[in-house]
Design brief:
single chain, 186 residues, alpha+beta, Rieske Iron-sulfur Protein, 2 domains, 3-stranded antiparallel sheet, 5 helices
Length: 186
Amino acid sequence: MAESTTATAHSSHDGDGVTKRDFLTLVMGAGAAVGAGAVAWPLIDSMNPSKDVLALSSIEIDLKPIQAGQAITVMWRGKPTFVRHRTADEIKLAAKNDGLLDPATDKERVKAGKEQWLVVIGICTHLGCVPVGNKATDNRGEYGGWFCPCHGSQYDTSGRVRHGPAPANLPVPPYAFVSDTKIKIG
């Protein structure tokens, strides 16, 4: 009889075969899942764009003050974006498609009927520097567009890479003309 009391003293089964250990395992597993979620949520949430970037998801730019031959830099989604009012000579230079490192025609990079306006993201595609060329006194390179002084990449008046280590053209952001004198980027 001593053997049967020892066996029943160590058994914690209730009638349907569930033990206290099963219950504790379930509670610990649920607690671990809640804890993992509590740790992961702030990490995942930190990867979302900040509120100041979301606020600039689209911007409108008045083109009236920009004279032919001038360019301005605006910030769009935290990136410098160049808006250039090209002269007739700059448009003629951009029409040349010879010697392109990243082939693209000027017509693919501007809006039809508004060829005098070029909008590109002003970040060099080599290592992320900001090229110079928006001021009249800046070095614009051999092709009259932009020059990246960090590694010598040169872009033409259509923002296409012509010389240097940059592998691609300056990207054209999504933009549209709201009126004849206003564009919306984004």
